[in-house]
Amino acid sequence: MGNPGLILKELSKYEIGTYAEILYRNALFYPDREAFSCDGKSLTFRSFNSRVNRIIRALQDLGLRKGDVIGVLSWNSMEYAEIFGAAMKGGFVISPFNARLQLEELRSLVQYSEAKAIFVGPEFTRMAKIMLEAIPGDRYWISFTEAEDRLLSYSRLLENAPDEEPSVRVERNDPLFIFFTSGTTGTPKGAVYTHARAIEDTKTYVMMNCIQPSSRFLMIMPFFHIGGAKVFWSYFYVGASHVIMKSFDAAATLKAIDEEVITDIHIVPTHLTAFFSVSDFEKYNVQSLKRVFYAASPMPVELLKKGLQVLGPVFAQGYGSTETGPNVCCLRLDEHQAIDGTSAKYNVLFSCGRPNLGVQVRVVDQADEDLGPGRIGEIVVRGNTMIEYWHEPEETEDTVKADWTHTGDMGYYDELGFIYIADRKKDMIISGGENVYPREVEEVLYQHPGIKEAAVIGLSDPYWVERVHAVVVPKNSGSLSEQEVIAFCKSKIAGYKIPKTVEFVSELPKTPAGKVLKRKLREERSDRAS
Length: 530
Fold this sequence. Notes:
By secondary structure, this protein is an alpha/beta fold. The chain folds into three domains: about 40-170, Rossmann fold (3-Layer(aba) Sandwich), CATH 3.40.50.980; about 195-425, Rossmann fold; about 430-530, GMP Synthetase, Chain A, domain 3, CATH 3.30.300. The protein has 17 helices and 27 strands. A nine-stranded mixed beta sheet has the order 2-1-11-10-12-13-14-15-16, sandwiched between helices. Helix 2 (about 20-30) crosses helix 4. It starts with 6 loop residues before the first helix and ends with a helix. About 45% of the residues are buried. The model has no long low-confidence stretch (mean pLDDT about 90).
């Protein structure tokens, strides 16, 4: 760093409203506070800043310049956080790749991103060697472990690089992130965010959830998922400490909450189900938790009720997407207390909250005309959204219209502005001419005491055109029958919404963020039918 005696002058080194400023600010104000710990290693904010500077210098020595894309193919690690930091201060654009994709999918994304340097975790060196031979063009492949073949060594690059502050001028409108859509409805697309859009989204999360520098955040979501990464950097924004886990494991997560005295965690609904499935759940002390933030997919209300009863009033919900920030709506901690309130307040638990500060939301019909309360339409968003799909102008025009980002999510709102998600537009089932929203059926299925997880999809049918089909994971194998599940639904929802067929499986296919891959469920069953 510069002259520590002139701390306020040093603070003005980077432009306000960029992550470069935040990274340097934390190093100046909290130099000896633990920023990250992972696998027994830890970094203070000062040492993190120093290592980030070294990475930037090393990449510059390789010939990379401001605006160049750097990719990452890895599970969560300390090094992963450092590459984010290097993009934030070095003016690079970071493109995290989904570590669960197959070789051909990854090869396509690497080419699409135009990454000039790709950082690779230890589990992916073999795949990296195949890709570097197969993909045309010059780029550097850098291993988080040792150098081998044409892979450079991350540690050796840092050893030979100085840690002075870089001379790059990072500006608010510079692109920073390329986050890829999950591909639940097709080929992944890269959503591009500038520093300004991303910082405003970060500030929204901090304000709506009252995040404090004293927080200890446990990172279990993957860095390549926009929700995981953006929540992570929201805690960094205020100077909080982080514990990074390589990936999610229910028992290991409970142990970390206990031993690390974790106050905050970001989960998806399937994580909560997994916690309660741990046989010795009661032995872990989780009383330090102050916030359990859930997002990425709707939380079944029966599961949420159990969470509130077991963990207490610690839940807050977020709604958004890869293209929308992702902090669009929030159902705050205090709003979850509706479980003990009146019927009207209780209904709020079925919502995803109201629009966040700095975000505007509408519900529109197919002509983009506004719909009134209670009427289902597409949710569109204006605010801290992506600026474009990377190199996809036509796709961008189809999604962003007159500055409103079309989410593809169907929903409605009530008189108080609480928004309720019905389902993805592409997941809606039209059975016998009636619209069926799978989430409504799934909410009923989750009320059955013998059902652990459930997904509802539409399948081709000669009579109904599409029939409502439930794919169910029972709590105990062989404990349920199709007739029992259908009978359970009959007393709770209209006849046209009741599953015509029920299938039992041991698990549901999911994205790394825990979102059920309904496209895969439909494709697999379509293949069987043909």
